[in-house]
């Protein structure tokens, strides 16, 4: 029996090391891949929230519920790590306590630094000290981790919020180009500067969301906005801009598109979504030609300068969109992003939500 306890104590030591490695991998040494523990916990939390949200047919109610998914994941990870340490130190204490329930009692007392139980002797006292240090360090690191997450979240949401006046809510690529002529009086000459800004935004999101994948689950404060849908909308507008107005091409637009689909691919790799690094530019899109034509007609109706017909521009637009469509649709489905136009299907049935437009109103004397 004592030999079995020693073997299980070795298993406990291995479990403690693996739990510590999981903590370090997620909170201290960020890398663009999820660990096994975080993937399992994320899948479980996602299953629970999807099951609850699926019952609601109203998107806003569903969004309010899903807003709690990211915090729930963080709490679940903390609970998983603490449970891992409790089990690990209980197994390591068993050779001294000779009774497994007493080992768990002492392990809980030590991990949570309560100090209500302890076994005399150098070995168990050392393990009690390590258990207490493990519990304190995990909680402290988790607390220190939160400001990093919310700083990245705030940087992300600033540009997403600013996009509402340009591209509607939820944002849509053709709407962005149409509003350069409609009401906003924004010159198309200003678009390269806009895309240069979004290139840096995409680089920031690529770095933060691939190293801290939980940020993908943090939803925008407003129900009809989404960092992912916003990125896809700006990329669609850039692809349309290059396809329809080749003489106005600027390197900022191409650099943004390159950074945009690079960001999506990095995030996809980080969370285990299949990524095609070299898609065939002639392969068909999930976006239909009729949907594309409706978008082009929207911006042409507002007088956007077009040099190619929709038929001539379609192969050029398709050649750009094939680089990011599949990964964008997969991420939108996985994160249950707002079902905007040109953003793919979701895990529930429902029609895409068109962008809301501000009413064209004037003061009575201006009229």
Structure description:
This protein has 367 residues and is mainly alpha-helical. It has 2 domains: 142 residues, no CATH class; 173 residues, no CATH class. The protein is 66% helix and 0% strand. It contains 14 helices and no strands. The model has no long low-confidence stretch (mean pLDDT 89).
Set down the secondary structure blueprint:
Blueprint lengths: L1 H27 L7 H18 L5 H8 L2 H29 L2 H12 L10 H41 L1 H4 L5 H6 L12 H21 L15 H18 L6 H21 L17 H13 L8 H12 L3 H11 L32
Helix pairs in contact: 1-4, 1-6, 2-3, 2-4, 4-5, 4-6, 5-6, 6-9, 9-11, 10-11, 10-13
Q: Which terms summarize this structure?
A:
14 helices, 66% helix, 2 domains, 367 residues, 0% strand, elongated, mainly alpha
Task: Provide a concise account of the structure shown.
By secondary structure, the protein is mainly α.
How many structural domains can be distinguished in the coordinates? 2
Radius of gyration: 26 Å
Structure class: mainly alpha
Shape category: elongated
- Biggest sheet character: none
Number of contiguous helices: 14
């Amino acid at each position: 029996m004592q030999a079995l306890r020693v073997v299980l104590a070795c298993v406990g030591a291995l479990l403690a090391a693996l739990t510590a490695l999981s903590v370090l991998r997620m909170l201290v040494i960020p890398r663009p891949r999820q660990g096994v523990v975080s993937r399992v916990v994320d899948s479980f939390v996602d299953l629970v929230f999807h099951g609850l949200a699926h019952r609601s047919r109203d998107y806003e109610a569903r969004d309010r519920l899903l807003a709690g998914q990211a915090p729930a994941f963080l709490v679940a990870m903390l609970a998983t790590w603490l449970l891992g340490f409790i089990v690990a130190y209980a197994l390591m204490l068993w050779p001294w306590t000779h009774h497994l329930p007493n080992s768990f009692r002492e392990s809980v007392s030590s991990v949570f630094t309560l100090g209500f139980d302890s076994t005399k002797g150098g070995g168990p006292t050392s393990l009690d000290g390590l258990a207490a240090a493990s519990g304190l360090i995990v909680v402290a690191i988790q607390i220190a981790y939160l400001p990093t997450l919310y700083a990245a979240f705030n940087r992300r949401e600033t540009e997403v919020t600013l996009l509402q006046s340009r591209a509607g809510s939820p944002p849509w690529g053709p709407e962005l180009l149409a509003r350069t002529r409609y009401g906003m009086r924004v010159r198309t000459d200003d678009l390269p500067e806009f895309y240069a800004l979004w290139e840096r935004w995409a680089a920031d999101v690529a770095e933060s969301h691939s190293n801290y994948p939980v940020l993908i689950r943090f939803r925008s404060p407003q129900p009809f906005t989404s960092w992912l849908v916003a990125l896809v909308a700006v990329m669609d507008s850039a692809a349309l801009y290059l396809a329809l107005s080749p003489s106005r091409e600027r390197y900022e637009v191409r650099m943004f598109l390159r950074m945009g689909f690079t960001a999506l691919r990095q995030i996809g790799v980080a969370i285990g979504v299949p990524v095609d690094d070299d898609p065939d530019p002639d392969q068909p899109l999930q976006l239909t030609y009729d949907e594309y034509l409706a978008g082009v007609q929207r911006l042409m109706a507002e007088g956007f300068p077009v040099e190619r017909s929709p038929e001539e521009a379609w192969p050029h637009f398709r050649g750009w969109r094939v680089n990011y469509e599949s990964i964008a649709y997969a991420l939108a489905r996985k994160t249950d992003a707002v079902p905007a136009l040109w953003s793919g299907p979701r895990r529930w049935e429902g029609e895409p939500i068109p962008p809301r437009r501000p009413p064209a109103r004037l003061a009575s004397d201006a009229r």
